[in-house]
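Example record

One chain of 219 residues, shown exactly as stored in the release files.
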Amino acid sequence: MKRLFDILASGFGLILLSPVFLIMSIVITFDSPGGVFFRGPRVGKNGKVFRIFKFRSMLKDCEGKGKWNVGDNDNRITKTGHFLRKTKLDEIPQLINVFLGNMSFVGPRPELQIYVDMYSDEEKKILDLKPGITDYASMVNIAQFETFTKAVDPDEAYLKYIRPLKLKLQLYYRDNNSFFGDIRIIFWTIYKVLTHSNKLPKEINSIVEEHKKYVENIT
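Predicted structure tokens for this chain:
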């Protein structure tokens, strides 16, 4: 049922948003050379590497040539890229990945190989699932871009503050996912993007608060 939903919903989304694709293609092309899409390698289900689709928000071929995690003050971001990242519009082309089958609407966000190489045996269970456009960690870290902008070292901020909780939430999803739970996550994500609210589902808020207490006790 999940795969059928992914095919139908992503196909409909690609048709519905085709004017957005056309407009962004024109804007990105005129803004800077390098093509419309960013196609960076990411680790998918069972550790299989695939190339993710995003609207290109940075200069051509610059991922990894500097910090992996990018804030708004990174000089690799294009003029259009600042807008794309703040509005999350750069993520829309991942509908193509969903349609092709190497991503789903809901699932752990696909990770860079350097971070997957750090997984513990327990964390490797995350790779049992197909990665997604959104998940519980995406909802919690909806303002991740702002965290990287404020950080002296965005990569350190990711490893120290964002990644530990992200992994907890992804493992929780791995053990508690369902089709109707995925639908709920989609609606929650839309709500968070549109309202910028700090509100979270009760069970996810409990995990976040527990993690905060853990961090306070070890610092």
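Notes: Strands lie at 37-38, 41-43, 49-51, 54-55, 104-106, 132-134.
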